[in-house]
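If you are new to this repository, start here. Below is one unmodified record pulled from the training split, so you can see the exact layout before writing a loader.
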Amino acid sequence: MDSETAARIVEAALETELRSSRRPDPGSVADTLVLELADDPETAVCKRGGASVWTGDVIEPLIVDLVGAATELPVPEVLASGSLANPSDGGPERWALYEFLTGRNPGPAYSVLEPDVRGRLVREAGELLGRLHATDSLGFDRVGGLAREGSTLRLCEPDSWHAVDFGPALEALLVPSAGDPDPRPVLTHGDYQPSNLLVDASGSITGVLDWGNAHVTRAEYALARAEARFVDVHARELDRQERARLRTTFRSGYALEGDLESDAARRLRTYKLLWLAQSAANYGRIARDARGRRQLWRQCRRLLKR
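And here is the target side for that same chain:
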């Protein structure tokens, strides 16, 4: 997205002028710009595209509105959303303008944070995830992807086991899903990790961003995936003792708001293995077309800059 396109969106949606634009340092799969505006709000974020890996729909504005209304999670306000009638480059048509939240992205520096700061971040991250999963108004009766239906969301059937319905895979591996005493379907973020958060200097979370891959899955599976992103993938940077401490901290934070069975540890290990298989399958699916390969390349460039 270029500044000319952003200026047209701002003028039509907010009736103000674009003074300048820049790309956020961490970047994202969606085409994202931070905008400086002539009137209130002085700063906004414009995202174009960002299709869900589960359904191919751009659902983030609807998800953020839903989560913002139902919970106290620090999500940005959706200022406006719409679509471009005639995209000049053949790219994704949908766009959204979001409130600009203050804070720094801890992703690039996560492993070198002071231990007490990282611990505070991890505990609060677990608590926010538990709060999301415990919100009754966000409950569902089955798992599935989320797609756009006009101005609302609809729950879709899972597209093979690697999408969100991992029950058949568990049965094939002789690890019965009945081992989970409370396989609750919950709305979850889909990519909950340090690089999708904003924090202040003390490590307190000021924003939860990038909801484009939100979907409905089982609570313990969502917890396991999130825990892996905050703890296990950092095995090179954090020693075993620190990782064990962070796991305990993350689960303790989650249990403040969400339900966590006392014997969940074994199942969480199994779910992390399924997450690895799911991730490999999803990357393979994304890489099948040119647009997906551009998304992956953008992610690779972001990682190389860290």
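Two things worth knowing about this chain: The radius of gyration is 19 Å. Residues 166 and 274 are 8 Å apart (CA to CA).
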